[in-house]
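Lab notebook, design round three. We kept the backbone fixed and only want residue identities now. Task for the bench partner: fill in a sequence for the structure below.
Input structure tokens:
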């Protein structure tokens, strides 16, 4: 690999920061669909002492484990595929979800989730995945992971919209708790606490 792992991870984190959450830290302009101009990004990143070459940017976009970022067709613009907290319209079209989707969370959030459902919190949507392992990894970021199954088919039948980002992550506005089931946890006691 031409770039070090450290450099690639640092760049991915930096891109998440400026393309999803705080473009203002380098005075970057995002348009209403979340796109930033690549030349402007490179220039402003370097000015902010975060030197970024086009080559490194291309490498990170191409090899990113979760396909977090995309270039526009002509390569002149870049945006995050999902996960924003800034207000952007990704222009996603509602599509039918699979029957079951998964959400990984942490044990300490479970009682609140069962009380109020899955909420999008700082992000634009609740994030769901088709793959259990992916969901468990997501949950592990916050503590002891707990896997929740979402009855997406029933939600869709009840008129709820689902979207799929360019990196396959499923998105929806919220998941009321009646559509949720705890399917696994690494903390067995939890089952008896929340039968
Ligand atoms: C939890 C990462 C209490 C929710 C991942 C989650 C994903 C509640 C946390 C993507 C709640 C929010 C998104 C409620 C939800 N009460 N807790 N009512 N409703 N929660 O990071 O889904 O690396 O905003 O379960 O891989 O964990 O950024 O969402 O634990 O794809 O590309 O509140 O972010 O991708 O946390 O992760 P987040 P998430 P990236």
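Proposed sequence:
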């Amino acid at each position: 690999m031409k770039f070090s792992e450290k450099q690639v991870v640092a760049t991915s984190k930096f891109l998440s920061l400026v393309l999803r959450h705080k473009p203002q830290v380098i005075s970057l302009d995002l348009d209403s669909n979340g796109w930033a101009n690549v030349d402007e990004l490179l220039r402003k990143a370097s000015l902010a002492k975060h030197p970024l070459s086009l080559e490194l940017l291309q490498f990170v976009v191409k090899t990113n484990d979760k396909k977090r970022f995309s270039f526009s067709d002509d390569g002149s613009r870049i945006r995050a595929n999902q996960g924003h907290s800034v207000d952007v319209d990704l222009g996603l079209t509602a599509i039918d979800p699979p029957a079951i989707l998964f959400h990984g969370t942490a044990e300490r959030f479970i009682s609140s989730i069962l009380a109020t459902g899955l909420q999008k919190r700082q992000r634009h949507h609740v994030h769901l995945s088709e793959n259990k392992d992916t969901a468990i990894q997501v949950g592990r970021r916050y503590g002891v992971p707990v896997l929740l199954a979402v009855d997406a088919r029933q939600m869709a039948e009840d008129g709820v919209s689902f979207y799929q980002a360019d990196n396959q992550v499923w998105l929806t506005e919220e998941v009321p708790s009646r559509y949720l089931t705890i399917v696994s946890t690494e903390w067995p006691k939890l089952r008896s606490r929340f039968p």
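Keep this in mind before ordering anything: Residues 96 and 146 are 25 Å apart (CA to CA).
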